[in-house]
Every structure is written in C-alpha cells, then in structure tokens.
Amino acid sequence: MSRSPIFTRRGLLVGSSGLVLAGCDKLNESPGFRSLLIGSEKLHQRSQRLIGGHEPLAREFAERDMSPEFRANGSRNVADIGYQQHVLDKFANWSLIVDGLVRRPLALPLTALQALPQRVQITRHDCVEGWSAIGKWQGPQLSHLLNRAEILPSARYIVFHCADRFGTTPYYESIDLIDAYHPQTILAWRMNEQPLPVAHGAPIRLRVERQLGYKQAKYVMRIEARSSLAGLYGGRGGYWEDVGDYAWYAGI
User: Fold this and answer.
1) What is the pLDDT of residue 140?
2) CA 20 to 30 Å from 119, out of 138, 153, 188, 192?
3) Given this model, what pLDDT does residue 6 score?
4) Which residue has the higher pLDDT, 30 or 119?
C-alpha cells in the first residue's frame, strides 16, 4: 500500500531525532517550533483528505512483523479507587457511557462490546517521541456504537473521557466524525491476543490508526458527541493539545 509522501509532524520530529529524543521539552518551549508543528498539521490534514479521500487505510502488517516488546507510554495505571475496584473485579461491573448529542444514550458493559462484530488489525503505533511499535488490536468499530446511539446531525466531534489524570486534570482526546467512522477506528479491548493490560489502558483504548500515539486515548470511560470543542477544558480538543500545544490533528 502506498504511503503519503507528505511530511508529517512525527516525520519532522524524527528528522530531528537527536534534538527531539534529547530535548523534546526544550523544543516544545520554543513558540516558533510549536507554530511550525501546528502549521504543518493543518496542511497535512487538508492534504491527506484531499489526496486520499476520507477512508485511506493505515498500513496493516503480518504477525511476523509484530514487535517483541510494545512499551507502555503515558499513564501506566490509574490511582482512582473506583478504577482499582474495576481492576480487581476484572471489569465485570464496568460500563462504557455513550452520551452527548445522541438520541439513545448507552451504558455498555465490556461483555456487550466484546459481543459486537470485531475488527482485528496489526498496525504500527507511532509516538511523537520518535519510537514505534507494531501490535495486534481487537475490538468493535467505533461506528457500531455511534450508529446504535444514533448521533444527532448537530454532532461534529467525538470526545473520549478517560480515567487517568495528570495531577487534577483528566486525560481526554477528540476526533472528528471522519476519523470516528473510519473502518480502522476501533475500541480495543484485546492486544496481542490477550486482554488489554492495565498499563496499555484497560479495559478499552481508542485505536485511531491514522494518527499519532497521544490520540490513542487509554482508560476510556465515556464517549461524548459534541457540536464544538469550545468550553471543554482548555478548548483545544485534548489534554496535550491544551497543556503542550500539541496539534489537534496528529495525522501520520
């Protein structure tokens, strides 16, 4: 499968790998560098969809290509007592909430997500820090849940509210409806033929394969359909977008 020749935010970072790996924070402190990254992302979003349409697939790999080790990044656990009880209960009493601009709000236990039609995909996770790993993911397509909830015509974005926090601030991410309905966008509850480990975001994490690692929200507890991202935390559509000036569209 051909890949877009357009340079990406990660490509820009990897191209400066020595600087990035040694001094990502220093680069991020530079207003000029942040503006360059944000500008490149807007160009890439427009170009990717203009050239490839709305449903070009991210590359999928064979099992022989899977990485022997897939590091866990970001949050590796959740301190919340309620979450820890779910871990002890093996998420038997956990439910995923789907609400916001929908006609039929949902509360789906893990068994209901596992009973939906499943998609299995072996894809590469690209971290903004410059490393990659190939893993196997299984879960229902997000589109199945959105169709069941009957999102309203006014909905423009899908927000993922997560259990993990950085200090007092909860992690969250968002995507638009084009990526939400993409066939490779799934809610993964299984990784490398095993239930998703806590360090990787159990019981479910988002896999939106055409975007960088920080968009793959872990510990997803609630999915909200919204017309706008304004007024939601910092208003930029994600935790790192709010606090680190990361670009909202993190296309690969």
Assistant:
1) 98
2) 153
3) 36
4) 119
- CB distance 61 to 124 below 8 Å: yes
pLDDT the model gives residue 30: 54
> Angle at the Cα of 181 (from 175 to 186), degrees rounded to 5?
80
Residue 39 CA: distances (Å) to CA of 6, 32, 36, 42: 13, 11, 5, 5
pLDDT at 251 (0 to 100): 85
**Structure-token match 């427009």, residue found:** 46
CB 189 within 8 A of CB 211: no
Contact 83, 219 (CB under 8 A): yes
Predicted structure pTM score: 0.82
Contact 162, 220 (CB under 8 A): yes
| Amino acid of residue 161 | H
User: In this predicted structure, which of 5-9, 65-69, 226-230, 232-236 has the lowest mean pLDDT?
Assistant: 5-9
Beta strands in the chain (DSSP E): 95-100, 106-109, 118-126, 132-140, 157-166, 169-176, 186-188, 190-191, 194-195, 205-207, 220-226
Question: Residue by residue, what is the 3-state secondary structure of 67-121?
Answer: CCCCCCCCCCCCCCHHHHHHHHCCCCCCEEEEEECECCCEEEEHHHHHHCCEEEE
Tokens 């490149």: give the residue: 40
Q: Indicate the length of the chain as a whole number.
A: 252
DSSP state of 213: G
Cis peptide before 203 (omega within 30 of 0): yes
The DSSP call for residue 57 is: P
Residue 195 sits at φ, ψ, to 5 deg, of -55, 140
